[in-house]
Amino acid sequence: MSDFFKGLEKVKYEGPGSTSPFAFRHYNPDEMVMGKRMEDHLRFAVAYWHSFAWEGGDPFGGRTFDRPWYGDDMEHARLKAEVAFELFGLLGTPYFCFHDADVRPEGSTYAESTKRLNEIADIFEKKMSETGVKLLWGTANLFSNRRYMAGASTNPDPDVFAYSAATIKANMDVTHRLGGENYVLWGGREGYETLLNTNMGQEFDQMGRMLNLVVEYKHKIGFKGTILVEPKPQEPSKHQYDFDAATCFAFLQKYGLENEVKLNIEVGHAFLAGHTFEHELAYAASQGILGSIDMNRNDLQSGWDTDHFPNMVPEVALAYYHILKNGGLHTGGTNFDAKLRRQSIDPEDLVLGHILGIETCARGLKAAAALIEDGTYDQFLADRYADWNSAEAQAMLKGERSLDEIAARVERDHIEPEPRSGKQEYLENLINRFC
Ligand code: XUL
Ligand code: CO
Fold this sequence. Notes:
There is one protein chain. The protein is α/β, with parallel strands linked by helices. The chain folds into two domains: about 10-375, Divalent-metal-dependent TIM barrel enzymes (TIM Barrel); about 380-435, no CATH class. It has helices spanning about 40, 50-55, 75-90, 100-105, 110-130, 160-175, 200-220, 245-255, 265-270, 275-285, 315-325, 345-375, 375-385, 390-395, 405-410, 425-430; strands at about 10-15, 25, 30-35, 35, 45, 95-100, 135-140, 180-185, 190, 225-230, 240, 260-265, 290-295, 335. The strands form four sheets. An eight-stranded parallel beta barrel has the order 5-6-7-8-10-12-13-14, surrounded by five helices. Strand 3 (about 30-35) and strand 4 (about 35) form a beta hairpin. The model has no long low-confidence stretch (mean pLDDT about 100). The structure holds D-xylulose (XUL) and cobalt (II) ion. The site of cobalt (II) ion has 4 residues, from loops.
Protein backbone atom coordinates (compact mmCIF):
# COMPACT_ATOMS: atom_id res chain seq x y z
CA MET A 1 0.00 0.00 0.00
CA SER A 2 1.25 3.48 -0.84
CA ASP A 3 -0.14 6.28 1.33
CA PHE A 4 -1.02 8.39 -1.69
CA PHE A 5 -4.77 8.57 -0.97
CA LYS A 6 -4.14 9.24 2.72
CA GLY A 7 -6.79 7.13 4.37
CA LEU A 8 -9.65 7.67 1.90
CA GLU A 9 -12.21 4.89 2.22
CA LYS A 10 -13.85 2.88 -0.55
CA VAL A 11 -16.65 4.94 -2.11
CA LYS A 12 -20.02 3.43 -1.20
CA TYR A 13 -23.58 3.83 -2.37
CA GLU A 14 -25.41 5.87 0.27
CA GLY A 15 -28.58 6.76 -1.65
CA PRO A 16 -29.89 10.08 -3.00
CA GLY A 17 -30.09 11.64 0.48
CA SER A 18 -26.37 11.47 1.17
CA THR A 19 -24.47 14.75 1.35
CA SER A 20 -21.02 13.16 1.44
CA PRO A 21 -18.82 14.21 -1.49
CA PHE A 22 -17.23 10.75 -1.31
CA ALA A 23 -20.42 8.71 -1.70
CA PHE A 24 -22.44 7.46 -4.63
CA ARG A 25 -26.00 8.74 -4.58
CA HIS A 26 -27.07 7.13 -7.86
CA TYR A 27 -24.50 4.49 -8.77
CA ASN A 28 -25.59 1.35 -6.98
CA PRO A 29 -23.73 -1.50 -8.70
CA ASP A 30 -26.24 -4.19 -7.68
CA GLU A 31 -29.40 -2.23 -8.47
CA MET A 32 -31.36 -3.83 -11.28
CA VAL A 33 -32.08 -1.64 -14.31
CA MET A 34 -34.17 -3.25 -17.04
CA GLY A 35 -33.35 -6.68 -15.67
CA LYS A 36 -29.59 -6.20 -15.43
CA ARG A 37 -27.23 -4.97 -12.67
CA MET A 38 -26.11 -1.37 -13.10
CA GLU A 39 -22.49 -2.41 -12.95
CA ASP A 40 -23.06 -4.84 -15.82
CA HIS A 41 -24.76 -2.18 -17.94
CA LEU A 42 -22.17 0.52 -17.42
CA ARG A 43 -18.95 -1.50 -17.25
CA PHE A 44 -16.89 1.45 -15.99
CA ALA A 45 -13.19 1.67 -16.75
CA VAL A 46 -10.52 4.05 -15.45
CA ALA A 47 -8.13 5.37 -18.11
CA TYR A 48 -4.53 5.01 -16.98
CA TRP A 49 -3.22 7.84 -19.14
CA HIS A 50 -5.30 10.70 -17.82
CA SER A 51 -5.18 9.72 -14.16
CA PHE A 52 -1.58 8.55 -13.90
CA ALA A 53 0.49 9.62 -16.91
CA TRP A 54 -0.79 13.12 -17.67
CA GLU A 55 1.07 15.71 -15.57
CA GLY A 56 -1.27 18.68 -15.81
CA GLY A 57 0.56 20.57 -18.56
CA ASP A 58 -1.00 22.89 -21.11
CA PRO A 59 0.52 24.73 -24.11
CA PHE A 60 1.66 27.54 -21.78
CA GLY A 61 2.93 25.67 -18.78
CA GLY A 62 4.18 22.29 -17.65
CA ARG A 63 3.45 19.92 -14.82
CA THR A 64 1.09 21.09 -12.09
CA PHE A 65 0.53 17.73 -10.42
CA ASP A 66 3.00 16.43 -7.87
CA ARG A 67 2.92 12.64 -8.00
CA PRO A 68 5.48 10.33 -6.42
CA TRP A 69 5.45 8.05 -9.49
CA TYR A 70 6.65 10.68 -11.98
CA GLY A 71 10.00 9.52 -13.29
CA ASP A 72 11.44 7.67 -16.23
CA ASP A 73 12.40 4.34 -14.69
CA MET A 74 10.77 1.05 -13.82
CA GLU A 75 10.79 1.79 -10.09
CA HIS A 76 8.41 4.69 -10.67
CA ALA A 77 6.33 2.64 -13.12
CA ARG A 78 5.83 -0.02 -10.42
CA LEU A 79 4.70 2.60 -7.90
CA LYS A 80 2.32 4.00 -10.51
CA ALA A 81 0.77 0.53 -10.93
CA GLU A 82 0.44 0.25 -7.15
CA VAL A 83 -1.44 3.56 -6.87
CA ALA A 84 -3.55 2.84 -9.97
CA PHE A 85 -4.94 -0.32 -8.39
CA GLU A 86 -5.53 1.60 -5.16
CA LEU A 87 -7.71 4.06 -7.10
CA PHE A 88 -9.61 1.20 -8.81
CA GLY A 89 -10.21 -0.26 -5.37
CA LEU A 90 -11.45 3.04 -3.87
CA LEU A 91 -13.88 3.53 -6.75
CA GLY A 92 -14.96 -0.09 -7.17
CA THR A 93 -14.66 0.33 -10.94
CA PRO A 94 -14.52 -3.11 -12.58
CA TYR A 95 -12.19 -2.27 -15.51
CA PHE A 96 -9.18 -0.22 -16.57
CA CYS A 97 -7.58 0.68 -19.92
CA PHE A 98 -4.01 1.59 -20.83
CA HIS A 99 -1.51 2.40 -23.58
CA ASP A 100 1.96 0.84 -23.38
CA ALA A 101 3.48 4.32 -22.94
CA ASP A 102 1.27 5.03 -19.91
CA VAL A 103 2.52 2.10 -17.90
CA ARG A 104 6.23 1.71 -18.70
CA PRO A 105 9.08 4.05 -19.64
CA GLU A 106 10.15 3.73 -23.27
CA GLY A 107 13.27 1.57 -23.71
CA SER A 108 16.20 2.36 -25.95
CA THR A 109 15.14 -0.39 -28.38
CA TYR A 110 11.89 -2.09 -29.39
CA ALA A 111 13.00 -5.21 -27.50
CA GLU A 112 13.65 -3.26 -24.31
CA SER A 113 10.32 -1.43 -24.50
CA THR A 114 8.52 -4.75 -24.99
CA LYS A 115 10.36 -6.34 -22.08
CA ARG A 116 9.38 -3.46 -19.82
CA LEU A 117 5.76 -3.68 -20.98
CA ASN A 118 5.72 -7.36 -20.11
CA GLU A 119 7.24 -6.72 -16.69
CA ILE A 120 4.46 -4.28 -15.85
CA ALA A 121 1.92 -6.71 -17.30
CA ASP A 122 3.22 -9.31 -14.81
CA ILE A 123 2.36 -6.87 -12.01
CA PHE A 124 -1.06 -6.19 -13.55
CA GLU A 125 -1.74 -9.90 -13.87
CA LYS A 126 -1.07 -10.44 -10.18
CA LYS A 127 -3.07 -7.40 -9.07
CA MET A 128 -5.96 -8.29 -11.36
CA SER A 129 -6.24 -11.75 -9.89
CA GLU A 130 -6.02 -10.34 -6.32
CA THR A 131 -8.63 -7.61 -6.87
CA GLY A 132 -10.90 -8.92 -9.63
CA VAL A 133 -10.32 -5.75 -11.68
CA LYS A 134 -10.37 -6.56 -15.42
CA LEU A 135 -8.91 -5.05 -18.55
CA LEU A 136 -11.51 -3.42 -20.79
CA TRP A 137 -8.97 -2.72 -23.51
CA GLY A 138 -5.33 -2.30 -24.27
CA THR A 139 -3.80 -0.11 -26.95
CA ALA A 140 -0.48 1.09 -28.35
CA ASN A 141 0.60 4.70 -28.14
CA LEU A 142 1.53 5.36 -31.77
CA PHE A 143 1.46 9.14 -31.53
CA SER A 144 3.72 10.57 -28.79
CA ASN A 145 7.20 9.49 -29.87
CA ARG A 146 8.76 11.64 -32.60
CA ARG A 147 9.14 8.59 -34.87
CA TYR A 148 5.37 8.85 -35.42
CA MET A 149 5.28 12.55 -36.31
CA ALA A 150 4.35 11.76 -39.95
CA GLY A 151 2.04 8.90 -39.03
CA ALA A 152 2.29 5.33 -37.75
CA SER A 153 0.74 2.98 -40.34
CA THR A 154 0.33 5.94 -42.72
CA ASN A 155 3.97 7.03 -42.53
CA PRO A 156 5.85 7.53 -45.84
CA ASP A 157 8.67 5.49 -44.26
CA PRO A 158 7.89 1.72 -44.35
CA ASP A 159 10.20 1.22 -41.37
CA VAL A 160 7.78 3.25 -39.25
CA PHE A 161 4.94 1.05 -40.55
CA ALA A 162 6.96 -2.01 -39.49
CA TYR A 163 7.84 -0.53 -36.06
CA SER A 164 4.14 0.30 -35.54
CA ALA A 165 3.11 -3.23 -36.53
CA ALA A 166 5.63 -4.69 -34.07
CA THR A 167 4.41 -2.36 -31.31
CA ILE A 168 0.77 -3.27 -31.95
CA LYS A 169 1.72 -6.97 -31.82
CA ALA A 170 3.39 -6.51 -28.42
CA ASN A 171 0.33 -4.68 -27.11
CA MET A 172 -2.11 -7.25 -28.51
CA ASP A 173 -0.07 -10.01 -26.88
CA VAL A 174 -0.24 -8.26 -23.50
CA THR A 175 -3.94 -7.45 -23.90
CA HIS A 176 -4.62 -11.10 -24.75
CA ARG A 177 -2.56 -12.35 -21.82
CA LEU A 178 -4.44 -10.07 -19.41
CA GLY A 179 -7.83 -11.23 -20.71
CA GLY A 180 -8.61 -7.84 -22.27
CA GLU A 181 -12.13 -7.68 -23.67
CA ASN A 182 -11.25 -5.37 -26.58
CA TYR A 183 -8.23 -3.93 -28.38
CA VAL A 184 -8.36 -0.26 -29.47
CA LEU A 185 -6.68 1.63 -32.31
CA TRP A 186 -6.83 5.40 -32.22
CA GLY A 187 -4.92 7.07 -35.05
CA GLY A 188 -3.90 10.46 -33.70
CA ARG A 189 -1.14 10.77 -36.30
CA GLU A 190 -2.96 8.84 -39.06
CA GLY A 191 -3.78 11.87 -41.15
CA TYR A 192 -1.87 14.91 -42.33
CA GLU A 193 -0.57 18.30 -41.34
CA THR A 194 -0.63 19.50 -44.95
CA LEU A 195 -2.12 17.82 -48.00
CA LEU A 196 0.76 19.31 -50.01
CA ASN A 197 3.13 16.57 -48.83
CA THR A 198 0.54 13.79 -48.64
CA ASN A 199 -0.52 10.98 -50.98
CA MET A 200 -3.89 10.28 -49.40
CA GLY A 201 -4.79 7.18 -51.41
CA GLN A 202 -1.45 5.56 -50.60
CA GLU A 203 -1.88 6.35 -46.91
CA PHE A 204 -5.39 4.85 -46.81
CA ASP A 205 -4.04 1.64 -48.37
CA GLN A 206 -1.32 1.48 -45.70
CA MET A 207 -3.88 2.01 -42.94
CA GLY A 208 -6.17 -0.64 -44.44
CA ARG A 209 -3.27 -3.11 -44.59
CA MET A 210 -2.37 -2.48 -40.96
CA LEU A 211 -5.91 -3.05 -39.74
CA ASN A 212 -6.10 -6.26 -41.76
CA LEU A 213 -2.83 -7.40 -40.16
CA VAL A 214 -4.35 -6.70 -36.74
CA VAL A 215 -7.48 -8.73 -37.51
CA GLU A 216 -5.44 -11.61 -38.95
CA TYR A 217 -3.25 -11.65 -35.84
CA LYS A 218 -6.28 -11.55 -33.55
CA HIS A 219 -7.54 -14.77 -35.14
CA LYS A 220 -4.09 -16.32 -35.18
CA ILE A 221 -3.63 -15.96 -31.41
CA GLY A 222 -7.27 -16.71 -30.61
CA PHE A 223 -8.02 -13.31 -29.08
CA LYS A 224 -11.78 -13.32 -28.49
CA GLY A 225 -12.11 -9.60 -27.78
CA THR A 226 -13.37 -6.97 -30.19
CA ILE A 227 -11.06 -4.85 -32.33
CA LEU A 228 -12.16 -1.22 -32.03
CA VAL A 229 -11.23 1.85 -34.05
CA GLU A 230 -11.71 5.23 -32.35
CA PRO A 231 -12.91 8.07 -34.59
CA LYS A 232 -11.66 11.64 -34.10
CA PRO A 233 -11.55 14.34 -36.79
CA GLN A 234 -8.41 16.23 -35.79
CA GLU A 235 -6.01 16.91 -32.91
CA PRO A 236 -3.14 16.20 -32.86
CA SER A 237 -3.10 15.97 -36.69
CA LYS A 238 -4.80 18.76 -38.62
CA HIS A 239 -6.92 16.13 -40.34
CA GLN A 240 -7.35 12.53 -39.17
CA TYR A 241 -8.57 9.82 -41.52
CA ASP A 242 -10.83 8.19 -38.90
CA PHE A 243 -12.81 11.44 -38.93
CA ASP A 244 -16.14 10.20 -37.56
CA ALA A 245 -18.24 7.04 -37.39
CA ALA A 246 -19.48 7.30 -40.99
CA THR A 247 -15.97 7.89 -42.37
CA CYS A 248 -14.72 4.90 -40.41
CA PHE A 249 -17.51 2.71 -41.75
CA ALA A 250 -16.64 3.63 -45.33
CA PHE A 251 -13.00 2.77 -44.58
CA LEU A 252 -13.91 -0.56 -42.97
CA GLN A 253 -16.06 -1.52 -45.95
CA LYS A 254 -13.43 -0.59 -48.51
CA TYR A 255 -10.85 -2.80 -46.76
CA GLY A 256 -13.28 -5.66 -46.07
CA LEU A 257 -13.36 -5.20 -42.28
CA GLU A 258 -16.94 -4.16 -41.54
CA ASN A 259 -17.75 -7.49 -39.88
CA GLU A 260 -14.49 -7.65 -37.93
CA VAL A 261 -14.04 -4.19 -36.42
CA LYS A 262 -16.32 -1.97 -34.38
CA LEU A 263 -15.98 1.57 -33.04
CA ASN A 264 -14.98 3.10 -29.73
CA ILE A 265 -16.96 6.34 -29.76
CA GLU A 266 -15.91 9.30 -27.63
CA VAL A 267 -18.14 12.19 -26.58
CA GLY A 268 -15.59 14.96 -27.21
CA HIS A 269 -14.52 13.52 -30.56
CA ALA A 270 -18.12 13.48 -31.80
CA PHE A 271 -18.39 17.11 -30.81
CA LEU A 272 -15.16 18.04 -32.66
CA ALA A 273 -16.58 16.35 -35.78
CA GLY A 274 -19.63 18.62 -35.61
CA HIS A 275 -21.96 15.90 -34.32
CA THR A 276 -23.64 15.05 -31.07
CA PHE A 277 -22.47 11.97 -29.20
CA GLU A 278 -25.86 10.35 -29.70
CA HIS A 279 -25.59 10.97 -33.45
CA GLU A 280 -22.37 8.95 -33.56
CA LEU A 281 -23.87 6.19 -31.41
CA ALA A 282 -27.07 6.02 -33.45
CA TYR A 283 -25.11 5.92 -36.71
CA ALA A 284 -22.76 3.19 -35.47
CA ALA A 285 -25.68 1.17 -34.08
CA SER A 286 -27.54 1.48 -37.38
CA GLN A 287 -24.55 -0.06 -39.20
CA GLY A 288 -23.86 -2.74 -36.57
CA ILE A 289 -20.51 -1.28 -35.49
CA LEU A 290 -21.22 0.19 -32.04
CA GLY A 291 -18.51 -1.28 -29.82
CA SER A 292 -17.59 0.77 -26.76
CA ILE A 293 -17.57 4.33 -25.44
CA ASP A 294 -15.02 6.82 -24.20
CA MET A 295 -17.01 8.95 -21.80
CA ASN A 296 -16.14 12.60 -21.19
CA ARG A 297 -17.28 16.04 -22.32
CA ASN A 298 -15.66 19.02 -23.98
CA ASP A 299 -15.70 22.60 -22.83
CA LEU A 300 -18.24 24.07 -25.24
CA GLN A 301 -16.42 27.41 -25.53
CA SER A 302 -12.90 26.25 -26.22
CA GLY A 303 -13.23 24.17 -29.41
CA TRP A 304 -10.63 21.53 -28.57
CA ASP A 305 -10.58 18.15 -26.92
CA THR A 306 -10.71 19.09 -23.24
CA ASP A 307 -11.62 15.65 -21.85
CA HIS A 308 -13.62 16.90 -18.88
CA PHE A 309 -15.42 14.38 -16.72
CA PRO A 310 -19.05 14.29 -17.90
CA ASN A 311 -21.63 16.22 -15.88
CA MET A 312 -24.64 16.67 -18.21
CA VAL A 313 -27.27 14.08 -17.34
CA PRO A 314 -29.65 14.76 -20.29
CA GLU A 315 -26.83 14.29 -22.83
CA VAL A 316 -25.63 11.13 -21.18
CA ALA A 317 -29.22 9.85 -20.95
CA LEU A 318 -29.67 10.11 -24.72
CA ALA A 319 -26.38 8.27 -25.21
CA TYR A 320 -27.44 5.37 -22.99
CA TYR A 321 -30.84 5.35 -24.70
CA HIS A 322 -29.11 4.45 -27.97
CA ILE A 323 -26.84 1.97 -26.20
CA LEU A 324 -29.79 0.23 -24.51
CA LYS A 325 -31.70 0.11 -27.79
CA ASN A 326 -28.62 -1.52 -29.31
CA GLY A 327 -28.76 -4.29 -26.69
CA GLY A 328 -26.12 -2.76 -24.40
CA LEU A 329 -22.37 -2.43 -24.60
CA HIS A 330 -21.62 -6.17 -25.14
CA THR A 331 -17.79 -6.51 -24.87
CA GLY A 332 -17.50 -2.71 -24.64
CA GLY A 333 -17.75 -0.48 -21.61
CA THR A 334 -17.78 3.09 -20.34
CA ASN A 335 -14.16 4.21 -20.24
CA PHE A 336 -13.53 7.55 -18.57
CA ASP A 337 -11.27 9.17 -21.14
CA ALA A 338 -11.38 12.19 -18.86
CA LYS A 339 -8.88 14.16 -16.86
CA LEU A 340 -8.82 16.55 -13.96
CA ARG A 341 -8.43 20.26 -14.55
CA ARG A 342 -4.82 21.24 -14.01
CA GLN A 343 -5.60 23.11 -10.78
CA SER A 344 -7.16 19.97 -9.27
CA ILE A 345 -3.90 18.85 -7.75
CA ASP A 346 -5.04 16.96 -4.64
CA PRO A 347 -4.99 13.16 -4.60
CA GLU A 348 -8.66 13.15 -3.57
CA ASP A 349 -9.51 15.07 -6.76
CA LEU A 350 -8.81 11.87 -8.71
CA VAL A 351 -11.52 10.16 -6.70
CA LEU A 352 -13.93 13.10 -6.92
CA GLY A 353 -13.52 13.40 -10.71
CA HIS A 354 -14.43 9.76 -11.17
CA ILE A 355 -17.36 10.05 -8.76
CA LEU A 356 -18.68 12.90 -10.93
CA GLY A 357 -18.39 10.77 -14.07
CA ILE A 358 -19.82 7.64 -12.47
CA GLU A 359 -22.78 9.48 -10.96
CA THR A 360 -23.58 11.32 -14.20
CA CYS A 361 -23.56 8.04 -16.11
CA ALA A 362 -25.64 6.24 -13.50
CA ARG A 363 -28.28 8.96 -13.61
CA GLY A 364 -28.17 8.96 -17.41
CA LEU A 365 -28.60 5.19 -17.56
CA LYS A 366 -31.55 5.27 -15.17
CA ALA A 367 -33.18 8.11 -17.12
CA ALA A 368 -32.73 6.20 -20.39
CA ALA A 369 -34.21 3.04 -18.89
CA ALA A 370 -37.18 5.00 -17.52
CA LEU A 371 -37.72 6.57 -20.94
CA ILE A 372 -37.76 3.13 -22.56
CA GLU A 373 -39.95 1.57 -19.88
CA ASP A 374 -42.46 4.41 -20.16
CA GLY A 375 -42.74 3.62 -23.87
CA THR A 376 -44.20 6.96 -25.04
CA TYR A 377 -41.06 7.94 -26.91
CA ASP A 378 -40.57 4.63 -28.70
CA GLN A 379 -44.27 4.62 -29.61
CA PHE A 380 -43.88 8.11 -31.06
CA LEU A 381 -41.02 6.94 -33.26
CA ALA A 382 -42.88 3.82 -34.34
CA ASP A 383 -45.96 5.89 -35.22
CA ARG A 384 -43.90 8.39 -37.19
CA TYR A 385 -42.73 5.66 -39.57
CA ALA A 386 -45.85 3.49 -39.36
CA ASP A 387 -47.00 4.22 -42.92
CA TRP A 388 -43.91 2.41 -44.16
CA ASN A 389 -45.60 -0.79 -43.00
CA SER A 390 -48.16 -0.62 -45.81
CA ALA A 391 -47.76 -3.13 -48.64
CA GLU A 392 -47.03 -0.46 -51.22
CA ALA A 393 -44.41 1.30 -49.07
CA GLN A 394 -42.71 -2.02 -48.32
CA ALA A 395 -42.65 -2.85 -52.04
CA MET A 396 -40.85 0.48 -52.70
CA LEU A 397 -38.37 -0.15 -49.91
CA LYS A 398 -37.56 -3.70 -51.00
CA GLY A 399 -36.78 -2.62 -54.54
CA GLU A 400 -39.90 -4.11 -56.06
CA ARG A 401 -40.97 -0.83 -57.70
CA SER A 402 -39.10 1.11 -60.38
CA LEU A 403 -38.92 4.89 -60.55
CA ASP A 404 -41.43 5.03 -63.44
CA GLU A 405 -43.85 2.65 -61.66
CA ILE A 406 -43.76 4.88 -58.60
CA ALA A 407 -44.30 7.95 -60.75
CA ALA A 408 -47.27 6.28 -62.48
CA ARG A 409 -48.88 5.51 -59.09
CA VAL A 410 -48.37 9.07 -57.83
CA GLU A 411 -50.17 10.35 -60.94
CA ARG A 412 -52.92 7.71 -60.97
CA ASP A 413 -53.78 7.99 -57.25
CA HIS A 414 -53.40 11.80 -57.15
CA ILE A 415 -50.88 11.53 -54.31
CA GLU A 416 -50.38 14.88 -52.54
CA PRO A 417 -48.43 14.38 -49.27
CA GLU A 418 -49.75 16.23 -46.21
CA PRO A 419 -46.90 17.78 -44.15
CA ARG A 420 -46.88 16.63 -40.50
CA SER A 421 -45.36 18.24 -37.45
CA GLY A 422 -41.96 16.89 -36.37
CA LYS A 423 -42.95 17.59 -32.74
CA GLN A 424 -39.43 18.53 -31.62
CA GLU A 425 -40.50 20.66 -28.66
CA TYR A 426 -42.97 18.01 -27.53
CA LEU A 427 -40.14 15.46 -27.60
CA GLU A 428 -37.64 17.70 -25.80
CA ASN A 429 -40.22 18.24 -23.08
CA LEU A 430 -40.87 14.50 -22.92
CA ILE A 431 -37.14 13.70 -22.49
CA ASN A 432 -36.91 16.26 -19.67
CA ARG A 433 -39.48 14.30 -17.73
CA PHE A 434 -36.94 11.50 -17.24
CA CYS A 435 -33.71 13.43 -16.63
C1 XUL B 1 -7.27 10.84 -27.71
C2 XUL B 1 -7.96 9.63 -27.21
C3 XUL B 1 -7.09 8.47 -26.89
C4 XUL B 1 -7.71 7.15 -27.19
C5 XUL B 1 -6.81 5.97 -26.99
O1 XUL B 1 -8.11 11.90 -27.95
O2 XUL B 1 -9.15 9.63 -27.04
O3 XUL B 1 -6.74 8.54 -25.55
O4 XUL B 1 -8.85 6.94 -26.43
O5 XUL B 1 -5.62 6.08 -27.69
CO1 CO C 1 -10.47 8.22 -26.33
